[in-house]
Every structure is written in C-alpha cells, then in structure tokens.
Design a protein that fits this description.
CATH superfamily of the largest domain: D-amino Acid Aminotransferase, subunit A, domain 2
CATH topology of the largest domain: D-amino Acid Aminotransferase, Chain A, domain 2
CATH class of the largest domain: Alpha Beta
Number of helices: 7
Strand content: 25-35%
Shape: globular
Distance between the termini: 17 Å
Number of strands: 18
Structural class: alpha+beta
Amino acid sequence: MDFDWDSLTFSFTATDTMYRNVVRAGEEWGEGELIPFGNIEISPAAGVLNYGQGIFEGMKAQRADDGNIVLFRSDKNAARFAQGAKRLGMPPVPESLFLDAVESVVKSNHRWVPPTGRGALYIRPVLWGSGAILGVAPAPEFTFMVYVCPVGPYFKGGMTPIKLKVSDEYHRAAPGGSGGVKAIGNYAPGMMPSKMAKVEGYAEIIYLDAVEHQYIEEVGAANFFCVKDNVIYTPDLTGTILPGITRASVMQIARDLGHEVREERVDVDMALDADEAFCAGTAAVISPIGSIEHGSKIAHYCNGEVGPVTRKLYDTLVDIQLKRADDRHGWIRTLEL
C-alpha cells in the first residue's frame, strides 16, 4: 500500500469499511453488516444528539514482529462497553457480537494497519441512541457501529516527557455521575480547559477530585500514575475515573516486575514530590511526565528524561503487545486473515 506511514499523527483518516447494527428498544441484537465507510443519516431528534445518550471505546490493532495483526485485551473493552450501555439506559452489546464486529472491521481494513513500530490501527466502537425522541428518556432505537483509522502517537514526541498543569477551576466528574463510563458527554467539557492549557504550552490538564479539590483523578483522557521510593501509585476506582484497560495492564505488569502497586487516593502534593510520573491509556500507551505545575509549585521529574520505572513499564507493555515477550496472562488475540 502506497501510504506515508511516517507522517501519521493521532488524527482521522478515512478507511474502507465500517460496521453497522441497529436494534429497536426491547429487542435482541441481530447480525450487523459491513458497509463502505461514509456519512450516515440520523434524525435531528435522535437521543444521542439531544441528550447525549451514547458511549464509545478506544482500541488498537497492531502489526506484531511476526507480521500478524493482533488485538490487546479486546474482551475487556467488550465488558466495559456493556457496563457503560447499562449505565446510560441502552441495550448492552453481547461480548461475542462486539468482538466479531471489531475483528471483522479490522480484517476488512487490514491494509490500513501500519508496519510494526510505525503506528497502529485505532478502533472506535460506538453505541448511541439513534431513534427520535422528544422527552428525556431512552431512545426507541439504538445503533452500534465500528470504524477504524491509522494513527501515530497521541502526544507529539512519543516518549518525550510531557508538561502538565493541574486545574483548580475545572473538574472532570463528580461522585454519583458518569465519570466511570466512557460516555460521549464526558469529553466535551474537557475540550476548552485542554485547549487553554495547550495554548499556554502544556500537553494536557490534570483534574483533581470535585469534592476536596486535593486528589488527582485523571490526565485529560488518560489515567495517572506516579512512583515514589519504587512504589507505584494510581488513583483508585471510586466511580469518578475511567477503569482504563491500559491502567489495569500497567498495574499487573508492575506487580509482575516486583513493584508494590497501591490503588488509593493520590494527594496532589504527594504526586508533586514523587520520583517519577506518567499517564497511561489506549491512545497514549504510556507517556512520561516531565513536569507538573500546580499553582505556584512546579515539580520536575528525572531531569526531563524518561524515568527508569516508566521506561521499564513501557518497554514491557509494548513487547507484550507486539508479541516480543511471553503473553503470560493471555492478553493477545491474533487475527486470522
């Protein structure tokens, strides 16, 4: 395929096909279909457009060192997608149907999977209330779709340490809300704070909890970690942060490597005093944090270099994802073309 893989950024590129499946409220999901990628028709009164009834997932297909196309922990995406659907009053997509849809789209767009080490095929499953509804209630019809596009690194510079700023004014989620769900409505409120931070030279915003304004929750759209005295800390799942699949994988890998991992409330002052800090997510993979600014305080980590623990975790995770290391936990799914 004649494509400039080295020019890839984390941005949209149209591919060949996508998957579509529609169900009426109260009915069971049937078989979906692969259709040419393109625009879709939807009612102006659709539940997703008027009331934000929708969820999505973020996944990647990559080309391993042996040339095969692999998925990473796709069953966990399927489970999270089903839980999110329940929370927003939508019919959960069965795990087998979700996985079949994802794999069929990747296979039909396999020519768009970048060569090893030069990007990934980003996979976007979405489920939304597509039926017309006027009152605030679940839509009468729902559409499940999957599309894909090739992407490069989420943060410019790849493993170059990023500069972050703690927000004291804006919060991502509140207790009892939908912060633990990958709901479409969770992301629009963060666009303006993120844009403002980038104008000031930061890569992203760090959000604190909405109650005490003291504990770190997330880094924009990624989970936060810090390292102090070789112990790895990450905010615990209290319903206000996303239960990231990369987050869970990093924790398991860290324990496999002999680190103590603590899921607890992470005080921002403790994080500023840590030895290393990084964020993790499907899009970001693992991104080292070079500095964090909070009010008049600025913390610098590892003299602007990638910390040793961060580097070890990143290398181990990528080696598993690309089948360079033993997949001891059964995380990798190899696709048969």
